[in-house]
Amino acid sequence: MRGAADLRVTAGRVPTSEWTVHERHGGALRARSDRLAVEEPLEIRIASRPAPGMASPRSTLSVTMRTPGHDFELVAGFLLSEGVVSGAGDLRTIAYCLDRDVEPDQRYNVVTAELDGEPRRAVPERNVVTSSACGVCGSASIESVTRRDHPRLGDGPSVGPALLARMPDLLASGQRGFAQTGGLHGAALVSASGDVLALREDVGRHNAVDKVVGWALLEGRLPLEDVALVVSGRISFEIVQKALQAGIAFVAAVSAATSLAARLAAETGMTLVGFVRGERCTVYAGRGRIAAS
Questions:
Q1: What is the pLDDT of residues 176-235, one digit of tens each?
Q2: 42, containing H or E segment
Q3: Coil, strand, or helix at residue 30?
Q4: Where are the domains of the chain?
Q5: Which helix (H) or strand (E) holds 71?
Q6: Rg of the chain's alpha carbons, rounded to an integer?
Q7: CA-to-CA separations, 72 to 163, 197, 213, 265, in angstroms, rounded
């Protein structure tokens, strides 16, 4: 398992694991070495600011399967999307949990966020694993999110067809982990001038989005009024809700949007674009932000 030195993944390295696979060639299976994307659990704990002389009360909020690296950004983005915090001012510290009750080989898989006060929104503890495949689902989650206040979406950004067509390449060019493993999703924040402000990878699309949103939160850049979110894979309801909490008004992807994602985007005034491939794209909502040239 990883120790402190392995936290260098936050400096741009994506952890991979060597594995022996067998491929069929000419009717026979041949062994070769391959690189796999690392997937490990991350337990997210929250603690309220303690009274003088008292220990911080802690509770487990969620366990998510993720690719190690940029863990604090992931936690910050997750807390924002869940409505537990509304900005960096609500967070006192984010740290790995080195308590004695945590097994030594799991200490870098447990992160505690200490809040400056009580949570902005009461979220029940989740003693279940949030999978890397689809994130948090269910009618209760959907209902709670659609009722939640989110930052007002701004007018921008206005994106022309040339930049829109470049967005998948901007994302792909920074996905070092995907190039090595073929098993990681990516998310990027792209400015209206085409600059990549932040790019993160993870085995889960929702985790990759939490990481770039968490980066923006910790850097004091929220709301992201003039920035587009570009994601690999499909656009789910959860991706749209995370973008809303960050004030992102433009979301683009190389694949399709789900019905709930399109509906939520239309109801909130977000621009949602899928199947961005060269000059082709499918606009599900908010076509007014796509410039003619």
A1: 888 788 888 999 999 999 999 999 999 999 999 999 999 999 999 999 999 999 999 889
A2: strand 40-47
A3: strand
A4: 161-289
A5: helix 71-81
A6: 20
A7: 30, 18, 11, 28
C-alpha span between 224 and 277 (Å, rounded): 25
Q: CA separation (Å) from 271 to 40, 146, 191, 278?
A: 33, 17, 15, 18
Place of tokens 């945590």: 102
Amino acid at residue number 243: A
pTM of the model: 0.83
Q: How far apart are CA 24 and CA 253, in angstroms?
A: 33
Longest dimension (CA), the chain: 71
Looking at the DSSP bridge assignments, the partners of residue 272 are 251, 285
Residue 290: count of CB within 10 angstroms of its CB: 18
194: buried, middle or exposed (CB in 10 Å: 19+, 13-18, 0-12)?
Answer: middle
3-state class (DSSP) for residue 181: helix
Identity of residue 235: I
Residue 286 near residue 272, CB atoms below 8 Å: yes
Q: What is the DSSP string of 187-212?
A: EEEEETTS-EEEEEEESSHHHHHHHH
CATH assignment, 161-289: 3.40.140.10
Report the alpha-carbon distance of residue 165 to residue 106 in Å, rounded: 42
What DSSP element (H or E) covers 262?
helix 259-268
Place of tokens 């433009």: 250
Residue type, 17: S
How do 58-66 and 40-47 pair as beta strands? antiparallel
Element (H, E) at 58: strand 58-66
pLDDT digits (tens, 9 = 90+) for 133-162: 444 444 444 455 454 567 889 898 999 999
List active site positions: 134
The interaxial angle of helices 259-268 and 237-245, nearest 10 deg, is: 30
Alpha carbon distance, N-terminus to C-terminus of the chain = 51
